[in-house]
Structures are given as C-alpha cells and as structure tokens.
Write a structure and sequence with these properties.
about 425 residues, alpha+beta, Rossmann fold, Elongation Factor Tu (Ef-tu), domain 3, eight-stranded antiparallel β-sheet
C-alpha cells in the first residue's frame, strides 16, 4: 500500500467540500490550537455559533467573503497509517478549469453530493471530468445527512441517481458514504446516528484504499527534462539526463532506446535524491547516465527496446476548454506541451462536443466555449511519443497554450481511434 495518498474534493457549490476537509483535519488532530482559535474568532465575528471549518481551506480573502472556493487549496496531514495530500477544488462552474488542474494527478476523488438536492449538473460535470482524467478511485460522499433526518432512503436515492448517470462512464472503483461534515458523522469515526450504514468511515477508507496497482509499471517511459553537463575539470566527462519516470522502471544494466533517434544503449548509472541507486520506478525523479555518448536532448524519451510508445504527429483527444477569451475553433494553431516536449499543433477537426447532462455527442458543434468538453483531432509540427491516456496518464496527457498570451487554454487526454 502506498504511504501517500493524493486526493481531491469536487462537487457543486455549498455541498460542503471545504467543511469536510476542515473536519478531517480537526478530528484527525492535524491542526494547531491557534488555527482553531483563529477560525473560531472569525466565525463569531461573522455571527456563527460554531467554528466554520471551511475557513481552514478557504484561504483567499475573496473566498471568505463570498463563501466559495475559487482556487485549488492544498492541505497536508497524516495518520499512523498513511500521509495525505488534499486538493480542495472549486465547485462553481466558472472555476471548472481550476478543478481540472487540482484533480489531474490525484489517486482518488471525493465527489460531494448534498443529500437534499441529489445529483445536480455540477455533480455530473465533475464526475465526467474525473472519468476523463482517469482518476482510479472515486468516493461519493452524500453530505448533510443530518438535514434529511439521517434517512437511509435519501442516501439510496442518491446512489440510484448517480449509478444511472455513471453507467455510461469509465469508472473503476466507486464507494458511497453517507456523512455530515458539519457534525463529523462517518468522517473520522462511524456515526451512531446512521446504524443502517454498515460501511467504513471516510478516513478509514482513505487509509486503506489500495493504490499500488494504479500506476503503469509495465511500460518504461523516461522523458528527458534536462541534460546535465558540468563544465568543470573534475567532471568533464559527466553526461546525465534528468527527468521523472513516467511509467515502468529502469535498472542499471538495462538495454534502452532513445527516441526519436532510435539509437540503442545501456543504462550505466542512476542517481536519485539520496545518491546512486540501482532502480528508478514510476514517479521517481532521477538522473540517468548511459554507457554510450548518444545524442539526447530535452524532449527525447528513453524506453525499452521492445516496448515503445506510439510515435505520431496526429492525435485524437478529449479536451476540456479553459479559455474565457476565445473558443476553440478548427484550423486554430496552438503550442502543445506533452511531457517535456513542446511543439506547435493545429486543430484539424472538432469531432463533437459532449453534453454534460445527457452525454450526447453533438457532431454539429463548430466551436468549444469555456468549460466545454469535446473530442478533437490535432496535427503537430514534430513527432510526439504518446500512449492512450487510460494506459498512462502522463504520456497520454497534454496541454494547449495560446501562442499570443502564453495562457493554458485546454487540457487534453489522448484517446485511441475508435474509442
């Protein structure tokens, strides 16, 4: 079991995401007394009888004034079983792009649902994005159960609504938990007020969910980020390639191939944060040295001889459009960032726009506006080394950048043709 779990909280506005995180931090004793005193004082000045736990994550002044989450807030805590990195994502549709950023590299997503309102449009939108982003584990927290009398029927109604919608999505592991973030029911400890619920508390689930098999340990992918050539007499012959393993593993002595040249060589040494090591695995940031002086540059990729990614200049991809200034249109040119490789790309076709509520594919769409999701075709000015996103989230993902403003305008997930 992985010692660190990265998870995101998503859902509609006022479903209680920030309050849930505050409750997790409070009941797991992960906040200091002065922090609790501060938010208690702020809550009293605002007229609240009890401490507003959402203030622990709503750090921006605008967030506190409006009572909503705008930016992604990151928090860290640990229990004896596991360490956690939390991304508290905005619920408002205006900040969907922030939500995509926060949930793009997590192991698990918590989708908050208000027991009184059930599955709403933002629930569907965020669940669709979680599915597209390939998040392996999903927890549906049916919140505010205290406001529906802790009624099992209300909980079951949400399960039925969600299951009907999610049947068309690619979700691997879904768990439903009834909670009250405000009161702490089923958050850290099981609640005596819902005896009909036989599952674990949320924290217990987070501590025990198995994530070791979520990473691609088969396809070795090492995108080169930086070439290290010290200009000193002592290290005049040193040539190392720094980067982060995007899949599989590398060991000293392994036969490898450098793309795009296709030149074969062997791993001579691997240096990690703590010094030399014999192996690097997916997610490790290392410096790799090779036995031969082959030509390797930033953006190249080191792979195994008989296990190559697809080398292509034509991509099919699902994208979430994030630009509020201009929509995506066919024939438009963008900068495309894929792993450590940057190329120019033109949109050759907008295949369809996906309706959030019905999952209907609108093939008549001529553009994608802010927060729209659709499938496009791209042609790049140089080859990329890609995998299907559902096989490898790193080598299957990319971003599009506006060449005039240098702003990120879209997040893309590469799909196999025919899917």
């Amino acid at each position: 079991m992985s010692t660190t779990l990265k998870f995101a909280t998503v859902g509609s506005v006022d479903d209680g995401k920030s309050t849930l995180i505050g409750r997790l931090l409070l009941d797991s004793k992960a906040i200091f007394d002065d922090q609790l005193e501060h938010i208690t004082a702020v809550s009293r000045r605002r007229g609240d009888d009890v401490a507003d736990l959402a203030l622990l994550t709503d750090g921006l002044r605008a967030e506190r004034e409006q009572g909503i989450t705008i930016d992604v807030a990151y928090r860290y805590f640990a229990t004896p079983r596991r360490s956690f990195v939390i991304a508290d994502c905005p619920g408002h549709i205006q900040y969907t792009r922030n939500m995509v950023t926060g949930a793009s590299n997590v192991d698990l997503a918590i989708v908050m649902v208000d027991a009184r309102h059930g599955v709403v449009e933002q629930t569907r939108r965020h669940t669709l994005l979680v599915s597209l982003l390939g998040v392996p584990h999903l927890v549906i927290c049916v919140n505010k159960m205290d406001l529906v009398g802790n009624d099992e029927a209300a909980f079951q109604a949400v399960i039925d609504q969600f299951t009907e919608f999610a049947a068309k999505l690619e979700l691997r592991d879904v768990t439903f938990i009834p909670i009250s973030a405000l009161n702490g029911d089923n958050v850290v400890d099981r609640s005596p007020d819902m005896p009909w619920y036989q599952g674990t508390s949320l924290l217990r689930h987070l501590e025990t969910v198995y994530t070791a098999s979520d990473h691609n340990l088969i396809d070795t992918r090492f995108p080169v980020q930086y070439v290290i050539r010290p200009r000193t007499t002592e290290h005049h012959d040193f040539r190392g390639y720094a980067g982060t393993m995007a899949g599989g593993s590398l060991r000293v002595g392994d036969d490898v191939v450098v793309l795009p040249s296709g030149l074969p060589t062997t791993v001579a040494a691997i240096d990690g944060f703590d010094g030399p090591c014999t192996e690097a695995r997916s997610g490790d940031a290392v410096v790799v040295r090779l036995t031969d002086h082959v030509d390797v540059s930033r953006g190249d990729m080191i792979v195994r001889p008989n296990n190559h990614p697809v080398v292509t200049q034509d991509l099919d991809a699902m994208i979430c459009w994030m630009d509020d200034r201009a929509p995506l249109r066919p024939r438009a040119m963008y900068t495309l960032q894929h792993t450590t490789r940057t190329v120019r790309a033109v949109v050759t076709d907008l295949r369809y726009e996906l309706d959030i509520s019905t999952l209907h594919r609108n093939t008549e769409a001529t553009e994608l506006g802010l927060n729209a999701i659709g499938r496009i075709a791209l042609h790049t000015t140089a080859p990329l080394f890609v995998d299907d996103y559902h096989r490898n989230r790193t080598t299957g993902g990319f971003i599009l950048i506006d060449e005039q403003t240098n702003a990120t305008v879209a997040a893309g997930m590469i799909a196999e043709r025919g899917r």
